[in-house]
Design a protein that fits this description.
Four copies of one chain form a homotetramer. By secondary structure, chain A is an alpha/beta fold. Chain A is 28% helix and 20% strand. The first copy, chain A, contains four helices and eight strands. In chain A, the strands form two sheets. The first copy, chain A, has a six-stranded mixed β-sheet with strand order 1-4-3-2-6-7. In chain A, strands 5-8 form a two-stranded antiparallel ribbon. The first copy, chain A, is globular, with a radius of gyration of 16 Å. The interface between A and B is medium-sized, with 19 and 19 residues.
């Protein structure tokens, strides 16, 4: 099975970074993309703290943690100024982009649509070559997430040394439909 | 030592109740007033869940749990529409009032000022006669909070049966200055 | 409804106290009796820590926390020397008595039988006059336990001042049959 | 730096397995060896649950979780019968060996000595070729443990396909001296 490349994200503005962050610009690094909403209980209680811990624990590794504010409900309550205050109060340090609004009549923002995310929190793992390797809707298990990151980081390291990564991989996983009840579902 | 009566709260609007809730109208019931801000991490993670559990566990007792949104920072991010969405997402069912803005130039809202609250979360216990018995800044311990509620409820029950409550009580406690670090401090 | 007096406990030895502790000797104090087994997961993870927190938080109150090792299974693995090591490693400081073995053929020890305990952990609340007021099988909720302790302490205080406690109380509660699954059931 | 091979363990008996488990017999599989004592609070509360979750989450992977009961204190309280009851009550399903007692006068058992473990809990990771890759004293972080397991599993898979693993690796990590306070230290 061929792996598909992760779509470039479409955003309107960024926090915690002097420049917009692009997926293309992160080539060579493993990427953890964390899609959240500031009023989503499961994101606040578990998803964002997990993303923050990944950012801290793997600070020395070729890994980028990127947040994406994918608002698909309560738009009036989660504007950029509210998000700015939220990121400040919750001490979130990694770059966070605001997902671009969908076209007329679509409450789902564009990146969320492009990745076919089911809701928030959603965790996406992208390998160092830009390929989508894992997408989990709901809170992801620490041990499993660690295992996936460890494998992607080792793979990236080998790839760099040998330039001989296999094009085919087992799975890569589509969205996991289960959710532990703390999720905000888009449909 | 005489106990002072808790000041009536001053609010601009209410959620989760068809009518505004007044302190005077709760005479005869023990009151737990929980002052919070929707972007205060300690409120969201621990204070509000505790208030909700009190509301559920003591549902049959003469006890009222009342929330008070005391916004003293990031005002633009925590308006009534944002609060409405927040209460919906976090499934908070008890009545919540919005503390009235302070006079010109004062970022501290009026009820918060009247109670001399230091920040959020703050838990206030008011006895069945309307007297301020306990005010805790920061997350309050479940066992201690339970003990205080149990004593106030028993006292209220005896009072009703005998109309002979002592006017003097040991303490009643002003605000406790300690905070475990998860608080939003007003100063 | 009259409240029954709690039966005196029957023990073979004690830890963390120079003298055996008797229920009669605790008259005038509220008593929390915590029945546990050192190999009971629910006791170790939740029951004993809760009892310890009560002992610490109410250190200044007329309240005694007493442990009772009610072994009804795996007797060979939970003898006095094993218990001594356990109490040391888990830093349990309150007095702990070893429940006396049942008569020939009865695996249930004597105090456990006298209180008709269903298993471990079991928390028993005894008022300052020695009356059994509450018995909970399984982990007890912190807020509810606090409320019960607060009411019993206030009652004891009033009683002392006025010597006029009501003989009748609402309930007193027999064993609660529910258990959250972490209990060791005797039957 | 060359990696050293993990020493074979020395045991007197086993639980949860029909046959003794040897390290040599696990060649080709990644091994998580969890050294614990049944009366060590940090092992019971966190180390053993983590090992159990690894066993469950990676049930389909070429990974073996093995427990080792390394008793270096309170020997009389942690004999084989006590351990049998403990494993039953805590529902531990993976194979557990009893570390062989040290020679005359040495309270440290033999495998614990051979690995120079500092106390319990200790988590040891051994790669599919039998080499010692990581040894952590104290509770190990879920995300980091997951990352290490993920990397070792990927490495094992590549190794099998290509038989060309690098003999030299970065580190492998000696014992981490820190402990979060819940550990039982051997010295």
């Amino acid at each position: 099975m061929s792996l598909r490349f992760a779509p470039e994200w479409q955003t309107t503005r960024w926090f915690n970074t002097p420049e917009p962050v692009t997926l293309a610009g992160l080539r060579g690094r493993v990427v953890l993309l964390h899609a959240f909403q500031m009023l989503c209980p499961g994101c606040v209680a578990r998803g964002l703290p997990q993303a923050q811990r990944v950012a801290e624990l793997f600070a020395g590794a070729p890994l980028a943690v990127v947040g994406l504010h994918t608002v698909f409900e309560h738009h009036e309550a989660m504007g950029p100024e509210a998000l700015r205050a939220f990121l400040h109060e919750y001490r979130i340090r990694f770059p966070v982009g605001v997902d671009a609004p969908g076209p007329q009549g679509d409450p789902i923002p564009r990146t969320m649509r492009a990745y076919a995310m089911q809701g928030t929190p959603t965790t996406v793992l992208i390998d160092a070559r830009g390929r989508l390797r894992r997408q989990v809707f709901g809170v992801h298990d620490d041990l499993l997430l660690g295992a996936e990151l460890g494998a992607l980081l080792l793979e990236a390291e080998h790839s760099e040394q040998r330039s001989q990564i296999r094009e085919e991989e087992e799975g890569g996983g589509g969205p996991r439909p289960e959710c532990d009840g703390d999720c905000c579902s888009a449909s």
